[in-house]
Amino acid sequence: MDCNDSASSVSGWIQTKTRKIFESLNATGRPLTESEKVKNWLLMGLPDAQQQELHDEVWLAIEAALGAEHATAPVDEFLRDLLRWRTGRVQGIDAVYDGLRRWAVRGGYAGDRPGLCRELAKLAKHYGLLTGAVGGHPDRRVERELRHLRAMGVDVHRPLTMRFLHDAEERQASNAELADALGLVGAWITRMWLADRPLAGLNKAVAELAYGAGPREDEDLPDHWRGRIDRLRNGRAGVPHDDAVNEGIRNRKAYGGGATRTAFAVLCAMMEAESREESPARYRLTMEHVMPQKLTPEWRRALGETAEEVHGAYRDRLANLTLSGDATNAGLGTRAFAQKAEVYRNSPIGMTRRVAGEAEWNQEALERRAEQLASEALSLWPWETAGQTAPEEAPFKWRIDGGEWHSEDAGSSLVLNVAGALVAHDPGNVERLSGDTISRDLQPASRIPPDSKSGTLTLRAVPGREDLVIYPYGGNYPESAERCRQMGARCGADVEVLFKDGNRIAAFWRLLKERTGGVPGQRDRWRGPSQWTSTLNPDGDRVGIYVGNPDLLWLYIRSGWGADRTSERAARMRRYSWTIQQTIGDQQLGENLERNADDGVSISVQRPWVRDDEGEWPEVAVWIKEQQERLAAVLADT
User: Fold this and answer.
1) Interval 549-560 mean pLDDT
2) 434 DSSP 8-state letter
3) Contacts of 536 (CB under 8 A, 6+ apart)
4) Which of 504, 530, 566 is nearest to 311 (CA)?
5) Secondary element (H or E) of residue 363
6) Within 13 Å, how many C-alpha atoms sit on residue 98's CB side?
7) CA-wise closest residue to 348 among 271, 452, 260, 264
8) What totals of helices (H) and strands (E) does the chain contain, helices first?
9) Phi, psi (degrees; rounded to nearest 5) at 128
10) Cα gap 165→214, rounded to integer Å
């Protein structure tokens, strides 16, 4: 080796060593973040003047657009989502630097790092609109869609929506097109959350959508993306059908953890869709539990002998939540429903005023509210393809005198549309359906205007007849169906109504009882995803069963909530958990023994399942019965 070869080797070694140091430490000696590594790579080796110019005029602009003047995490997230868009793969945030370098080299962008830096600055402005770091979009409709996506707190959509903003600018699409495209994503994400679908699976679907081919020059932007999203409908990332959204609203937990923020965003969007400019500012509002988070003696008396069951099942569901002002919410606390209703009646928020229309707040009222919220949500976030179920798939189908079948997604819409059809068929039916019974008969709108109350009942306009109103709500599906048949009989018409139970979880509980005899204390009216047996020992302990997760179900021991001290209860739960580990170790078991004990529950006995596969239900029912008996034995032995 001659001297020149030796010098060249030393120079290469020094450059490699310098690059590794440049990639690992910042000016303070701390390890570099992913975005700091990217910045150094973009600037490294350029003339000093060019480095300074790119840093001051381009990189600092990226940080400003992302609100990252004092933190690097927003830049890391931007680069991660950019890579998901440009590669179609789920890129972890801890590998952004390596991923971006590989993508840049393979795509030929590494040869012009200043140009790449400027392109990143352009895209960062789009991303800043998604996060709100650069303020709002100048178009009102576009900003309304963006604000809803921000408020939801579900950020998985950003690789795709960043592309929407980029493509709209490149092809000079109208703001109306852009708003419609963003609205599709808003409806998709919102329906997924309302239907209680796992959102983690969206990462891959969104990355692949964003990476794929975009619309042709002659193709409408929202039409293209609706078609692309529709192709996901048979997978878990597909837009949920109306019946899934309806069931989710009835059953999912909407308060606690990340659900609180999303539920607040959903309720605020409903409020603003109804009242528009008259809506109170969101920052002045909080979510209010109508039935309080902790039962008082007065609420126990009001709910009756099933108070614990109703409270445990419904407390944190959307039907039990409404909006109120900060001061109002703090003052209501655990007051009786009659006292709360007096305050609700003066609320500027329509949904809260409607809660006051109930005579009492019990399971029947909660089910009616869930149906009402579902109807409003499906109207606000429709999906024309995925949401339009065939008549045989809808919760209801009906026809008059053997005519054409119609489908309905809610009992209230069934009553309204059957009444409207009967009146349209024969004007004389107005008199036949009219009467003094507000809860059953047609009323003139001149007497009771649409959407106003008669006592505690809110009446709605009959479709096609704004001069007529009717109270359309029923306690359950059979009641709504029978009411429509009776309206037909009063008019001398044959109204056929077919329906299937809109609550598939309730159908599973029925199968459990039919196949295995059920578990101790199982009632025919079990509907919710979380249920408990009757007490199985003198301490009041029960076995709990949870079937609300579409991929995993579990059983556990739940402590009696009597007067025993927290420390005694926790110690008892620890003993149960240790026994479960020793005697039921052949099953998949949960973890977090200590935390569970402090919460008054044991570790869980678990089983993977596909909840939507009804063919699996009989086997699962037998398994639940067996594990419940084993947990009951743990209670007896301990």
Assistant:
1) 84
2) B
3) 520, 542, 543, 632, 635, 636
4) 530
5) helix 363-380
6) 7
7) 271
8) 27, 15
9) -65, -30
10) 13
Q: Identify the H or E element spanning 226.
A: helix 221-230
| Residues 131, 75 contacting (CB under 8 angstroms) | no
Q: Please state, rounded to an integer, the average pLDDT across all residues of the chain.
A: 85
Token code pair at residue 618: 């009989």
User: Are 68 and 79 within 8 A, CB to CB?
Assistant: no
**Exposed/middle/buried for 119, CB within 10 Å: 0-12, 13-18, 19+?**
middle
Strand order in the sheet with 406-408: 406-408, 396-400, 495-499
Burial class (CB in 10 A: 0-12, 13-18, 19+), 170: exposed
**411 vs 233, which has greater pLDDT?**
411
Phi, psi of 554 (to 5 degrees): -155, 155
Angle between helices 113-131 and 158-170 (to 10 degrees): 110
Question: What local confidence, expressed as pLDDT, does residue 124 receive?
Answer: 94
Q: What is the pLDDT of residues 175-212, one digit of tens each?
A: 999 999 999 999 999 999 998 888 877 888 899 899 88
- Determine the average pLDDT of the residues in 569-592: 89
Q: Is the pLDDT of residue 7 over 50?
A: no
Phi and psi at residue 386, to the nearest 5°: -70, -30
Q: Which residue has the tokens 């293209």?
A: 224
Cα distance between residue 264 and residue 268, in whole Å: 6
Q: What is the pLDDT of residue 233?
A: 67
- What is the 3-state composition of the chain as percent helix, strand, coil, each rounded to the nearest 5? 55, 10, 35
In sequence order, which residues have a C-beta less than 8 Å from that of residue 149 and are 6 or more positions away?
Answer: 130, 157, 161, 182, 185, 186, 189
Tell me which residue has tokens 């830096």: 117
Per-residue confidence (pLDDT) for residue 138, from 0 to 100 = 93
Between 276-290, 345-359, 394-408, 546-560, the lowest mean confidence (pLDDT) is in 394-408
Tokens read off for 342 = 């007096």
299 contacts 290 by C-beta, under 8 angstroms? no
As a whole number of angstroms, the distance between CA 394 and CA 502 comes to 9
Residue with tokens 């895209």, as numbered in its chain: 123
Q: What is the mean pLDDT of residues 138-146?
A: 94
Q: What percent of the chain has pLDDT over 70?
A: 88
Contact 247, 195 (CB under 8 A): yes
Q: Structure tokens of 400?
A: 């008059």
Half-sphere exposure of 188 (CA within 13 A, CB side): 29
Q: What is the pLDDT of residues 15-30, one digit of tens each?
A: 443 444 344 444 555 7
- Is 415:481 a contact under the CB 8 Å cutoff? no
**pLDDT tens-place string over residues 350-375:** 999 999 999 999 999 999 999 999 99
Residue 143: C-alpha distances to residues 25, 147, 197 (Å): 40, 6, 26
